[in-house]
């Protein structure tokens, strides 16, 4: 049985948005079927969202298990592929190391308040994106 290492001394747990990647049947902005999963993550994978720019609003920085190596990796994912978003606290050492590298030199903003705001913004952005896709498909 494999167990996750708990955060080492010096790394405190962080809050992030946990989400799953949509399974088959997802559509892109032109109404075409998207391939399952992403280049790095399988469909249905749980990913931890640690950063997102509300200005561009199309991609989020995610940490998850790689589809082949099963190692923790950081990659961008299209927000239109996300489902079941919720705020979670994370204390896994490998994830905390990737978070520290992402925010290197800067103060890590992953507090409960930040994660809650990011989750609410992502939910509304994903909803708006899906309604745009639905309009394209219906036309």
Please state the oligomeric state of the protein chains shown.
Answer: single chain
The overall strand count is 5
**Taking Cα atoms only, what radius of gyration do you get, to the nearest Å?**
16 Å
Using the coordinates shown, work out and report the CATH topology. Answer: SH3 type barrels
Distance between the termini: 51 Å
- Largest beta sheet: what is the strand line-up? 4-3-2-1-5
Assign a percent range to the helix content: 25-40%
Q: Uncertain segments of ≥5 residues (pLDDT<50)?
A: 5-9, 132-139
CATH architecture: Roll
SSE order, one letter for each helix or strand: EEEEEHH
Number of discrete domains: 1
Helix/sheet category = alpha+beta
The largest β sheet comes out as: 5 strands, antiparallel
Indicate the overall shape. Answer: globular
Task: Please describe what this structure looks like.
- The structure is a single chain.
- The chain has 139 residues and is α+β, with helices and mostly antiparallel strands.
- The chain has one domain: SH3 type barrels.
- Helices cover 27% and strands 27% of the residues.
- It has a five-stranded antiparallel β-sheet with strand order 4-3-2-1-5, sandwiched between helices.
- It is globular, with a radius of gyration of 16 Å.
